[in-house]
Specification:
- The chain has helices spanning about 1-10, 15-30, 45-55, 60-80, 110-120, 120-125, 125-145, 145-150, 185-195, 215-230, 240-250, 260-270, 275-280, 285-295, 300-310; strands spanning about 160, 165, 175-180.
- By secondary structure, the protein is mainly alpha-helical.
- The chain folds into two domains: about 1-80, DNA polymerase, domain 1 (Orthogonal Bundle), CATH 1.10.150; about 110-310, hpI Integrase, Chain A (Orthogonal Bundle).
- The longest helix has 20 residues, at about 60-80.
- The N and C termini lie far apart (about 55 Å).
Length: about 325
């Protein structure tokens, strides 16, 4: 039954998501009698499993909800195909105080950015990924791009005449956009283009993980670096550079007429705030986006600006 469901959603979901579905459902199946069938799983049985197994396992709320979501996804399919009458997992998501709590994710504070920018990542993760992280940290903060978007950037995507690059595809349809690069980030792009040996801006990355992502290992190396500099926890990750970028843009909107909600949505790669804009607009012109990026100079803290302009010796 599970194999048939997975076959139908293959290609729609990532390999990593499919693997997580399999693990969650097998874990649940092992907790039930050998002769138990899907139509016998009542809401009470599902709720008991959530309370007595998932929430007592010490995992985070996010992990608990992900496993419930996997079960609920399969049961929605079972109901659609007529194998069961109801989805007993619907509404079983855990939002209480039990289990390991995760701190809400947030943007970096200026002092944290200075600490991250002031350290040579090679001293923590070695030369190969240290050089990559040095540049990714700066571009992440100055463009707000997701780490996967930056690692997937090809030399042919760079628009040198505009000091910008295209993101041809991303997490959502709105992720496709042209991103002007801040004056402190453009030298990074130039250096990476000149030294590329394989057509990628970030050359030489090894695809890894279930979906063969070029960012897979980089994400892990960044986590090691961040924890070494800032310590465990803290509610920050690489995506926090994107949160910081959005925060800076919001602050810049009080300093410059060039920055408004539509411009911010375009640069971040989110749906435009007004329905009419989302449906009919073909996007903002490069000059408008460039003006918004230039406005960041008014709001990024001076100490952060100083460290953003630094160069890594031996790069």
């Amino acid at each position: 039954m599970m194999a048939r469901w997975l076959k139908e959603i293959e290609g729609v979901q990532t390999k990593q998501s499919l693997m997580q579905h399999v693990l969650a459902i097998k874990e649940f199946a092992q907790s039930q009698p050998a002769n138990c069938t899907v139509d016998r799983i009542s809401r009470r049985i599902a709720g008991d499993y959530v309370s007595r197994v998932l929430m007592q396992a010490g995992g985070s709320q996010k992990t608990v909800n992900r496993k419930i979501s996997s079960m609920s996804s399969m049961w929605r399919w079972l109901r659609k195909r007529g194998f069961v009458e109801e989805n007993p997992w619907q509404g079983q998501g855990s939002f209480g105080s039990a289990g390991k709590q995760e701190r809400p994710k947030r943007a970096y504070e200026a002092q944290e950015l200075v600490r991250l920018l002031n350290v040579d990542p090679r001293t923590v993760v070695g030369a190969r990924y240290g050089l990559v992280l040095f540049d990714l940290i700066r571009l992440g903060l100055l463009t707000g791009c997701r780490i996967g978007e930056l690692c997937q950037l090809r030399v042919e995507d760079v628009i040198e005449s505009q000091q910008a690059f295209r993101i041809p595809q991303g997490k959502t349809e709105n992720a496709r956009r042209v991103m002007p690069v801040h004056r402190l980030g453009w030298p990074v792009i130039q250096h990476r283009m000149a030294s590329s040996s394989d057509g990628w801006v970030f050359s030489g990355l090894t695809p890894a993980g279930p979906d063969g992502k070029r960012s897979w290992i980089v994400v892990k190396r960044y986590a090691t670096f961040r924890q070494a500099i800032l310590g465990q926890g803290g509610g920050v990750d690489f995506h926090s550079f994107r949160r910081s970028f959005a925060t800076y843009l919001e602050r810049a909107s009080t300093h410059s007429m060039a920055v408004n909600s539509s411009v911010i949505a375009e640069l971040i790669g989110h749906v435009k705030p007004a329905l009419a804009l989302a449906v009919y607009s073909s996007g903002l012109v490069p000059q408008q986006l460039r003006a918004a990026i230039d406005a960041l100079d008014h709001v990024i803290e001076p100490e952060v600006i100083r460290h953003l302009g630094g160069k890594l010796r031996g790069a």
